[in-house]
Design the sequence.
């Protein structure tokens, strides 16, 4: 039987995964485990051939290439977890390759949609905190995990930058604009101490209503709530805000190297994709609006 609790803990420590992503990994592994059991086999003694048989089984069922790839990612993650926790000696996924599926264009919001989103929080303590969080996330292109891990000492409001640890092995300095600085100052001045109440101050920048560091899951829920409230998106998530930061920077002339550094060495192919998408959108706007297009 797969150890669902420990697998989730591993994913939570090792990845910036949404709850929905974790659920998908677990669901995929349960399907794989059922397939093995139906054929008289077990995960603990699974071999590469068993995994390849499962992938072929999925193909015979008419599953799409993207679905098969996703299930392979789930299986690979689970065996990485088993190897990391010394439950197996070798990973049977190492030599397995699946066909590449055409990369889906990343979703991002227009400047108008971002403005609508950032205008949603009210002037209650929660709204002041949420506005500061959303402004900072968009201003600096941060991941949910990076926002959660920020401490008060990482923010320099006088000069206007944050120090972000990112993958915990490197840190990067990211400037932020006046709206983000003003929103954070308002939160720090009027709200953070209220949320902290009688709790010991751990130094976390953003706190939840228990006075503890806000979690990634809390940030995902917060963003989804405001996405629905603004009418921007029913399924808004932190990655879409990060994508919007990248796309809007490119639209306003950011170069590839600078954007990579701001994003924390994001995969160059992803940044190039943003660049091509942003240029295509600019051309579309030009064609529709310029009188001599």
Sequence:
């Amino acid at each position: 039987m797969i150890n669902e609790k420990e697998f989730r803990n591993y994913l939570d420590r090792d990845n910036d995964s949404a709850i929905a992503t974790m659920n998908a990994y677990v669901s995929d592994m349960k399907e794989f485990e059922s397939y093995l059991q139906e054929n008289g086999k077990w995960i603990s003694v699974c071999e590469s051939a068993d995994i390849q048989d499962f992938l072929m089984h999925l193909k015979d069922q008419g599953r799409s290439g993207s679905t098969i790839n996703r299930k392979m990612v789930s299986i690979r993650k689970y065996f990485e977890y088993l190897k990391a926790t010394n439950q197996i000696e070798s990973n049977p996924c190492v030599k397995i390759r699946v066909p590449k599926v055409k990369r889906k264009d990343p979703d991002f919001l227009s400047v108008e949609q971002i403005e609508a989103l950032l205008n949603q929080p009210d002037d209650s303590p929660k709204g002041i905190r949420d506005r500061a969080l959303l402004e900072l996330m968009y201003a600096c292109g941060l991941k949910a995990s990076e926002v959660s891990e920020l401490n008060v000492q990482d923010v320099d409001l006088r000069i206007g930058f944050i120090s972000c640890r990112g993958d915990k092995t490197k840190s990067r300095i990211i400037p932020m604009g006046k709206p983000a600085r003003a929103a954070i100052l308002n939160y720090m001045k009027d709200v953070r101490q209220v949320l902290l109440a009688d709790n010991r101050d751990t130094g976390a920048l953003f706190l939840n209503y228990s006075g503890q560091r806000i979690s990634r899951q809390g940030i995902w829920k917060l963003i989804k709530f405001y996405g629905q409230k603004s009418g921007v998106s029913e399924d808004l998530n932190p990655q879409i805000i990060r994508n919007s930061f990248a796309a809007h920077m490119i639209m306003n002339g950011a170069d590839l190297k600078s954007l990579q550094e701001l994003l924390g060495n994001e995969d160059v192919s992803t940044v190039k994709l943003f660049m091509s998408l942003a240029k295509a959108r600019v051309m579309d706007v030009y064609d529709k609006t310029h009188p001599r297009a």
